[in-house]
Amino acid sequence: MLKIGITGGIGVGKSIVSRLFAVLGAPVYDADSRAKWVMHHNKALRQELLQAFGPETFTEAGELDRGYLAGVVFNNPQRLEQLNSLVHPHVGKDFEVWAASHAGKPYVLKEAALMFESESWRQMDEVIAVYSPLELRIKRLLKRDTHRTEADIRAIIGRQLSEEEKMRRAQHIIYNDDKQLIIPQVLALHEQFAKAGA
């Protein structure tokens, strides 16, 4: 079974690409939503988070206080790095367990924005980078995330690994640039992975 990563910066359309693969029957692991689940349910990680970020990390009801945590790490690269270094290894283990549960499939996908930054690309056989031009991404995000300003979006993009670097390091690129159709690109890769992983 092949393990395929899907990555790309905010606003490139990773989720659309993942949904198309899912429609074709490929199991998709969403690292973002699984990270939230793991932070809630993994006892060892909860302890690590409490030690690193204090009792305010969880509410009285035991829920992760994402607003508090976001406030601590936003604009603080060291604290963000600390948070990622705690969460990513647990998500990596969670992915391995999940992938093993789909052992009958020719391939599985892991969608992760920080595929290269978190070193989780090392768990993958191949990586797809989804690419969109910067101005198109900003336009999409202003429409989608109405609470964010253009300056906010540019700041987030500025903190992520550059698209050029992601494209250089990935084995496959899907262009979501409003010029090329996405479906034929996904279909071609689906056929390739299905054959290779069969």
Automatic annotation (TrEMBL):
Localization, UniProt: Cytoplasm
GO molecular function term, any single one: dephospho-CoA kinase activity
E.C. numbers: 2.7.1.24
Annotated binding of ATP, by residue: 11-16
InterPro entries: Depp_CoAkinase, P-loop_NTPase
Protein name listed in UniProt: Dephospho-CoA kinase
Membrane spanning stretches: none
Protein source organism: Pontibacter anaerobius
Keyword match Electron transport: no
Pfam family, one: CoaE
Family the entry assigns: Belongs to the CoaE family.
